[in-house]
Design brief:
Number of domains: 2
Order of helices and strands: HHHHHHEEEEHEH
Number of strands: 5
Helix content: 40-55%
Shape: globular
Distance between the termini: 24 Å
Strand content: 5-15%
Structural class: alpha+beta
């Protein structure tokens, strides 16, 4: 994950977006340059790190022409699907889910499908399977690898279009225990 490194996040987003154009025929970097010119934002004035975080945020919200009615999360998922680059698609998915979850209350989980959830533990995104016979119980945590991604890709991309959350005391308690010294 690249939550503390805007340069890695920018590189990932640029890889996912590729050479797509906006509704006005501009690349994402051309649009960002225009934004900087229009707003007066410059790295020299604000410093490198604030400039990079602003660029990262701008690129995250940018929408290509063919998906202008979708959310940026759904647009990134759709772009990665067309490119058939699973590694990039998985990274983009993790990035989007992590960004959505990190500001929500402790114990909030993304209900990704009937048997899979994710939550933000304060510094990383955690994925877990739910018990087949009792979906109120968490069975085990897992890494989102190629096999898991291929099996659940359709459900995960559908979740990005219509995120569904719930609150789980069990997750809240785990996160609180791990934060204690």
């Amino acid at each position: 994950m690249c939550y503390r490194d805007p340069e890695k996040g920018i590189a990932l987003l640029l890889e996912v977006i590729g050479d797509l154009k906006s509704a006005h025929g501009h690349t994402v970097l051309e649009d960002f340059d225009h934004f900087c010119s229009y707003s007066g934002l410059s790295e020299a004035e604000v410093g490198r790190l604030p400039f990079l975080w602003t660029k990262y945020g701008y690129l995250s919200a940018w929408k290509p022409a063919d998906e202008s009615r979708q959310s940026s999360a759904a647009a990134l998922a759709g772009v990665s699907h067309r490119r058939e680059d699973d590694e990039v698609a998985v990274s983009a998915f993790k990035l989007q889910v992590g960004m959505l979850l990190r500001d929500l209350p402790l114990g909030t989980v993304a209900e990704l499908d009937d048997l899979c959830i994710a939550w933000w533990n304060g510094k990383d995104l955690v994925f877990a399977h739910l018990c087949d016979d009792d979906p109120d119980r968490i069975e085990e945590e897992f890494d989102l690898d190629d096999c898991e991604w291929q099996e659940r890709r359709e459900a995960f991309e559908a979740w990005l279009k219509e995120p569904n959350y719930s609150s789980r005391a069990e997750v809240r308690d785990w996160v609180l225990r791990r934060r204690q010294p």
